[in-house]
Amino acid sequence: xxxxxxxxxxxxxxxxxxxxxxxxxxxxxxxxxxxxxxxxxxxxxxxxxxxxxxxxxxxxxxxxxxxxxxxxxxxxxxxxxxxxxxxxxxxxxxxxxxxxxxxxxxxxxxxxxxxxxxxxxx
Length: 122
Fold this sequence. Notes:
This protein is mainly β and about 120 residues long.
């Protein structure tokens, strides 16, 4: 059974940094591109970062490019999201997501975790 469990969210001041972690199990981690998606209050899901199976390639949404970094550890079967210069508009529930086997960069995730709340406020 696929399990994705996020951690690391919380309340953070604008301009600070935060790192989210996703621990996974129940599938062949190294065979799947992974992603982070988020949902802000009263808004739909927004994918913000994707990483290739080997971790050497990544894609970012315009809203986070240059501030957030996605990475993965294929031994530990985890992905991380390093968030720098966090802004109030980054307030959202952040989800770790698994893309289908053989997915392209434009494919939607097929599984996601329960999420972790990030609130940006002074």
